[in-house]
Each structure stands twice: as C-alpha cells, then as structure tokens.
Design goal:
13 helices, D-amino Acid Aminotransferase, Chain A, domain 1, D-alanine--D-alanine ligase, alpha+beta, four-stranded antiparallel beta sheet, manganese, ATP-binding, about 350 residues, globular, Rossmann fold, Dna Ligase, domain 1, 3 domains
C-alpha cells in the first residue's frame, strides 16, 4: 500500500511525533509498504515534484529533513497561515491510508481528522468527536463522572478567574495541576504546599489558558491499550524518582515498565473493563491508550485517554502488544487493517 505517515506539526510534542513517525515508517517499509514520512506543517516538496511513494526511500533522511524546519517553526511560527504544508493534503489524498503519528494540539484534537473526513481520506485512530473529547481533560472527567467511571475529584480552572483557591472547590493538597489539552505530561506538576500550587498554576498557564486541578492519588500507575474495542495486557509504570512526567516518559532507564502488570485476576479484569468503558464513553475508535492510578486501598481511578499514543518499539502500547506475541511491525499492520476495515463498513472511499 501507499501510506503517508503524518508527523511533526507545531505542538510541544513535535519531536516525540517525529520519533514515532520515523519508527512507524521504518516498520511499514520493512513489511513491503511504500510509506513516506511527512511533516504536516512543512510538507515535502521533493515528493510532490518527484515520485510520491518511491520504492527506494531513506526514512532517517526524511526525518532529518523534517527536523530542519524545527528552528523556523519555533521562531517564526505564523498562526495565520494554513496549517497544512505545501502539497500535504494532495499527497494524503493519493495515499491508500494516512498513518497518524501526530501528538498534541492540531493533530490529536480532532481538527485534522475532521478535514480528512470531509475529504474522504482514510486515516488511523479515532474520529473528530472522540479525539476532541479525549484531548480535553476537563470534558473527559465530566463524562467519566456522569457515566459512573471512577476518576479523581477535580475542577477546571481558567486563566482569567481570580479565585484560584482549592478550598472554595472542596479540594485539598496534595493535588495535581495539568494543562487541559496537553500531552506527554508537559506542564504537569504535583503540588504539596500552597507555594507549590501557585507555582504549578503559573507553569501550566504558560502552556494553556485552561487547566485541570485534581486530587492527587498516591499509589501505582498503569496504562491499558484498547485496540478495536479489545483491552490489551496492562502495563505498570514505576518512575525511579518523582512521578511519570515528561522526563520519566522519555529518558532511558528512568522508569521501570512491567507488562503484564503484577495484579490479581480480579483487578486486571476490572481495570481492563474500565479501559473499554472509557473507550466507549469518549466514542473512541480503532485504538487508544487509557491511563489509570490505583491507590493503597486498591481503588482504581481513570485519569485520561490518549487517542494517538506514542509509537516506538519501546512505547507503552507496543510493549502491551509484545506481551501478546505481536512485533512492532505486526502492531502497525493491525492498526492499519482495523482502520481500513472500519472505512469499508461505513462506505467511505478507500
């Protein structure tokens, strides 16, 4: 198949997206597909001027080409220009499917998915509605609560609000502060004192104008992949220091990751059931990853859903697939087949 692996973009997770996209593209080409790696924001004029899906293709060179735009995007980002780079939509329309390796805003929040739906471009991952609801942690928490899915108590705080107090919202320290629509734990802090709370707010507000503040759950952290409505083996995350923040997610050796997690059969079943419930509540499709905390009383709390989770051989979802005997390439292939079968069911052009 001719496949566009779409990565990059302008979010704070641009580099993580490029890493995911590179590994996906390598895996797909290793399985005989003519996959190309493309930055959604900058495009690749070389592909538009030459063969779009060449048989001979250097993925690492393509990744280096994409990174060549990093400084210009950081220093000269123009929010008034069209988000799609030159030729990107045309290239995607000529592909059999687009593999979404985007992370963060303008990629994981449903906007790109909505454009693709209107243009009848098949892609991997959830549609616009599920992507948007999962991206907004405030909306996710509200829907979880309304549906009876346990989630930490919390509230949404907007930058213009003068009253930032926890007491007026029946919450106490310690608490977790995080941007409402961020990912990869960027801007997330745990506050144990009032001074740490104020600092955490200022830090998170530097990323977004809307935050989620929630009760801190002391205990064990887990993640559960859901593919085509089926829960995968649970993975436990044990940071050597601190919590599972941006550093501990991506720095080698900073977190012990155990899959399958060492849990009783009943707790395993309950957490997987909660993962599938969250998947349905948020109207997710094809695949996602759901994050959980379990406190010292073995009470399970759903934190959030990730509609486009990290995709390198050592990322969480691929580790869960490996526990089922699937290679990274097998997983990439499965996500494509699940997505294409869904398009055929709905009558979309493929």
């Amino acid at each position: 198949m001719n496949i566009v692996v779409l990565a990059g973009g302008t979010s704070t997770e641009r580099e993580i997206s490029i890493v995911s996209g590179t590994q996906i593209c390598i895996a797909l080409r290793g399985r005989g597909h003519r996959a190309v790696l493309v930055d959604i924001y900058s495009g690749d004029r070389r592909l538009m001027e030459g063969e779009r899906f060449p048989e001979a293709y250097d993925v690492e060179e393509a990744a280096a080409y994409i990174r060549g735009f990093d400084q210009a995007i950081r220093e000269n980002y123009d929010p008034s220009r069209p988000f799609f780079g030159p030729g990107v939509l045309e290239l995607c329309q000529s592909a059999d499917i687009v593999f979404m390796a985007l992370h963060g805003s303008n990629g994981e929040d449903g906007k790109v998915q909505a454009v693709f739906d209107l243009l009848r471009i098949p892609y991997t991952g959830s549609g616009p509605l599920g992507s948007a609801m999962a991206m907004d942690k405030g909306i996710s928490k509200q829907l979880f609560r309304q549906s009876g899915l346990p989630t930490p108590e919390g509230f949404v705080l907007r930058k213009e609000e003068k009253d930032r107090s926890l007491e007026s919202r029946s919450l106490c320290l310690p608490c977790v502060v995080k941007p409402c629509c961020g990912g990869s734990s960027v801007g997330v802090s745990i506050a144990h004192t009032r001074e740490e709370y104020e600092k955490a707010l200022d830090d998170a507000f530097s990323y977004e104008d809307e935050l989620v503040v929630e009760r801190y759950i002391r205990g064990r952290e887990f993640s559960v992949g859901v593919v085509d409505g089926e829960a995968y083996p649970i993975i436990e995350l044990e940071p050597i220091q601190g919590f599972y923040d941006y550093h501990n997610k991506y720095a080698a050796g900073s977190t012990i990751e155990t899959c399958p997690a060492k849990l009783s059969d009943s707790l395993t079943g309950q957490m997987q059931e909660y993962a599938c419930l969250a998947y349905r509540i948020l109207r997710l499709e094809k695949y996602a990853r759901i994050d959980f905390m379990m406190d010292e009383k073995e009470e399970i709390y759903c934190l959030e859903a990730n509609t486009l989770p990290g995709m390198t051989p050592t990322s969480l979802l691929p580790q869960e697939a490996a526990a089922l005997g699937m290679s990274f390439g097998d997983l990439c292939e499965k996500l494509i087949q699940v997505s294409l079968s869904d398009y055929k069911k709905t009558g979309a052009q493929v």
